[in-house]
Specification:
The structure is a single chain. The chain has 160 residues and is mainly alpha-helical. It has five helices and four strands. It has a two-stranded parallel ribbon. Strands 2-3 form a two-stranded antiparallel sheet. Strand 2 and strand 3 form a beta hairpin. The termini are far apart.
Length: 160
């Protein structure tokens, strides 16, 4: 399982990755930055690399729904694929699914509180550059995918 990675190491990892040839046409960061200082360090890195962000996507979900989704999430103990509540077996290997300790409601609630305190301000940081597109995180995967593609442009060209 993952653990804490210091900001300078994370920025170094991202720097190394963004220098790879397959990132020249674009890239997606998921789950980073999580704090304003991380966002500021990332901005410095992007400037160093002569790059900029086209769009920051915020998948907005009601807090009660977020708590329900996260605390109901199941995982395959063999392949680590995650599944929504109500799924019984892994589609890849038919193993019975389990709930991770850090996905139980008593563990999820504090994570959401930390998210609200530290991560939501990152949106304000990027809103100042008019980069944030809010996506309604309710609905089907197809609905949400359509909103994401609309925000970034179906052909990869960012829509303003």
């Amino acid at each position: 399982m993952g653990g804490y990675v210091p900001d300078d190491i994370m920025i170094g990892m991202i720097k190394d990755r963004l220098r790879q040839p397959d990132c020249t046409r674009g890239f997606i960061l998921d789950g980073f930055p999580r704090t304003v200082p991380q966002a500021e360090a990332l901005d410095v890195l992007m400037q160093e690399l002569g790059r900029s962000f086209d769009r920051v996507l915020y998948l907005r979900v009601d807090l009660n729904e977020l708590l329900r989704r996260l605390s109901g999430r199941l995982v395959c103990p063999l392949c680590q694929r995650t599944y929504p509540p109500g799924t019984e077996k892994c589609k890849a290997d038919a193993t019975a699914l389990v709930q991770r300790e850090d996905d139980k409601q008593e563990a999820v609630q504090p994570r959401i509180e930390i998210y609200l305190k530290k991560t939501i301000p990152v949106l304000d940081h990027y809103r100042s550059g008019d980069l944030v597109s809010e996506i309604d995180g309710r609905g089907t995967i197809d609905d949400i995918s359509r909103q994401v593609l609309d925000a970034i442009g179906q052909n990869g060209q960012v829509r303003q």
